[in-house]
């Protein structure tokens, strides 16, 4: 028997319960993992609280991320004792996830632990960090250089945003961080590398089709009016990497930024990102992220605190990354 957070549904309401499950109850997969750490992402918050229909079947162990040690494997790519990382692939939604002491996964979903990483650091990065790295890489691949001008990061206080700010600043970009909690998080965001902090209210409004050109690049985690306004302010031949919908899935914009300024809109998905691209992103982010990030923007909690933090994250009350120690 192993300790786990288990979600059930009663009268269309999600109930989260700390319990024990049998290893025999774990879903099918080639690799059994002794889980050391998981983390809380926005999607985990939605799953645990039931605020959105993220979970496709019950009962469900949440946790879209985890890192740990292989106990046994029927796939030749992994042997007992190997350290591995799991992010995405619908885990914690349709397949039992990382908020349990043991988990079983398909081998194709795993990434070998990089040599300069461990379980704690991997989950301090997690899906949020992987997504942020893919966003930054999209800007780089799109020709956005530090000399091109400022890069805007929306939802900068969150997991993806805080990592994106750190990565961009470390690569030499001028970063403007947008947050709904400027007074609370301005000092942290500047410590991570933001040159200035913009209150979200300046973007969360109805925008004109085109406004003054401000941003050479954009990493957006919010969507809706915030994204619509940011797009209207993009510079000529700029790139917007979008990866989230914390503010809603609508996109109130026009074709004007795209056909008159050549703005490119690049969607970023980390859930089904192919292995080679995923592995390259892990290696690159570990090269760039300074040790100061892990001290400034990461917190650790126990499995018993997950429900509390799940409620906090969907209310926008969590700053940076939250590690769950198993």
Explain this structure to me?
- Helix 9 links the parallel strand 14 (298-302) and strand 15.
- Helix 2 (119-141) packs across helix 3 and helix 2 packs across helix 7 (275-288).
- The strands form 3 sheets. Strands 3, 4, 5, 6, 7, 14 and 15 form a 7-stranded mixed beta sheet that branches.
- The longest helix has 23 residues, at 119-141.
- It contains 9 helices and 15 strands.
- 30% of the residues lie in helices and 28% in strands.
- It is α/β, with parallel strands linked by helices.
Number of helices: 9
How is the quaternary structure best described? single chain
Residue-averaged pLDDT, rounded?
94
Largest sheet features? 7 strands, mixed
* Helicity level: 25-40%
Please give the number of β-strands. Answer: 15
- As residue ranges, the low-confidence spans are none
Molecular shape? globular
User: What is the CA-atom radius of gyration, in angstroms?
Assistant: 20 Å
Provide the β-strand percentage band: 25-35%
Head-to-tail CA distance between termini = 14 Å
Q: H/E order of the elements?
A: EEEHEEEEHEHEHEEHEHEHHEHE
Could you say which structural class the secondary elements and strand pairing correspond to?
Answer: alpha/beta
